[in-house]
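Workshop exercise sheet. Pairs work together: one partner reads the sequence aloud, the other fills in the structure field after running the prediction. Swap roles for the next sheet.
Pair: D.N. / O.F.
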Amino acid sequence: MKRISNLYVIDDDKIYHFLLKNLFKQNGIDVASTFFINGYDAIEHIKSNKDKDSDILPDLILLDVNMPIMNGWQFLEEFGKLSPGLQKKPTIYMISSSNNEVDINKSKEFEGAVKGYFLKPICKEDLDKIFV
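Structure field:
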């Protein structure tokens, strides 16, 4: 597995947060995880920490599509504006319950930013793809 020190999970489903923590534990994935319930909170956190030690910024972001306040697409737009000034360039995966072709194809428009699209609930095989 590649070394992921810091993970951001941006998803409004707190049950999913709980399940994901357990999935990590069951599969021996030891990573510092920060959970956000919408894209806005995550963007504000990144903005307020972008000039600090790069260890605060994520190596990996698991991003939901449908969330209140700021959805995954809006997060990607805002993150794209911040990205050039960041000390660290995280890998981003979309994790969604939407199997709509429009969403899957839209994730491909963010080539270079979004590495892949996984359907919820993610499983051990998905984690192997994400963390390898």
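Discussion prompt: The helical segments are 14-26, 39-49, 72-82, 101-109, 124-131. What would you look at next?
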